């Protein structure tokens, strides 16, 4: 089977006030069915721009992108995209925050609620369907935003630094939880992170980007058995990957 996402020779520049900003330069990436792939790179190098292009939120690129073998420009495929600051609306309760994109997709409220109720226990949110944002912990808000993304009918999930705002303990918990969800439902995931440890712990493969304009400096396969647990992060192999990524990012 071909790749779910294939990005070939992608270039992207922004033009603003007569100035050209080259952001992506000859990016090549693939994500295969059911793979967990991370993108890591310096701040502002163009990671979110790649996601925006894949989701058709940013046009005017050169190169080719295909989704399930179909050119992005003619693909009808819907993407589940969680933005960096995917905030819940404080005036809506949890189930209405989550149902909103489903209703926008044309699902009726009753059906949306049914889907949500089915998944609440899996996302550790059972009993909180009527809670407002201020009643939820940081981890719960993050899980709610992920559930909202997860319920979009797509086998590809693009997650832009979903755990960036969490403290270390919650981040660890959320990584384990995300892996358990991913192992259960086998979506293809493209994941942006600033954390080397997080990228190694979660991924099958990692793409390391350079400073802007971003090029792919390294594509690295992570050969650590699954299911993963926190014991893996002290293994010598984990530390070898860590040193390699650290040196590549320098
Ligand atoms: N719509 C736009 N118009 C002009 N410039 C833009 C636009 N979107 C992004 N940029 C610029 O492109 C560059 C890359 O931005 P992008 O958000 O893709 O980086 P990033 O790697 O995701 O950053 P971070 O890691 O800090 O989230 C930045 O310099 C940004 O200012």
TrEMBL record:
Entry GO MF terms: ATP binding; ATP hydrolysis activity
Primary enzyme class: hydrolase
Classification via InterPro entries: AAA+_ATPase (IPR003593), ABC_transporter-like_ATP-bd (IPR003439), ABC_transporter-like_CS (IPR017871), ABC_transporter_ATP-bind (IPR050166), P-loop_NTPase (IPR027417)
Top-level taxon in the UniProt lineage: Bacteria
Keyword terms of this UniProt record: ATP-binding, Hydrolase, Nucleotide-binding, Transport
EC number annotated for this UniProt entry: 3.6.3.-
CDD domains: ABC_NrtD_SsuB_transporters
Residue intervals of the ABC transporter domain: 5-236
SUPFAM superfamilies registered for this protein in UniProt: P-loop containing nucleoside triphosphate hydrolases (SSF52540)
PANTHER family referenced in this protein's UniProt entry, alphabetically: ABC TRANSPORTER ATP-BINDING PROTEIN, TAURINE IMPORT ATP-BINDING PROTEIN-RELATED
Protein name: Aliphatic sulfonates import ATP-binding protein SsuB
Organism: Oxobacter pfennigii
Gene this chain is encoded by: ssuB_3
């Amino acid at each position: 089977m071909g790749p779910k996402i294939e990005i070939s020779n992608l270039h992207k520049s922004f033009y603003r006030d007569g100035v050209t900003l080259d952001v992506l330069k000859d990016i090549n990436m693939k994500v295969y069915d059911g793979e967990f792939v991370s993108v890591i790179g310096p701040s502002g190098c163009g990671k979110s721009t790649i996601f925006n292009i894949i989701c058709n939120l940013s046009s005017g690129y050169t190169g080719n992108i295909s989704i399930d073998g179909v050119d992005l420009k003619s693909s009808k495929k819907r993407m589940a995209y969680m933005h960096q600051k995917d905030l819940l609306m404080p005036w809506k309760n949890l189930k209405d925050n989550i149902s909103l994109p489903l209703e926008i997709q044309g699902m009726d409220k009753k059906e949306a609620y049914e889907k949500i109720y089915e998944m609440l226990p899996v996302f550790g949110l059972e009993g909180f369907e009527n809670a407002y944002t201020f009643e939820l912990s940081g981890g719960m808000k993050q899980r709610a935003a992920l559930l909202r993304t997860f319920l979009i009918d797509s086998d590809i999930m693009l997650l832009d630094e979903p755990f960036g705002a969490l403290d270390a303990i919650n981040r660890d918990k959320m990584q384990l939880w995300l892996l358990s969800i991913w192992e259960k439902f086998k979506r293809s995931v493209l994941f942006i992170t600033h954390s080397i440890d997080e990228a190694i712990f979660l991924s099958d493969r990692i793409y390391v980007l350079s400073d802007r304009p971003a090029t792919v400096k390294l594509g690295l396969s992570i050969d650590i058995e699954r299911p993963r647990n926190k014991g893996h992060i002290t293994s010598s192999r984990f530390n070898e990957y860590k040193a390699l990524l650290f040196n590549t990012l320098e």
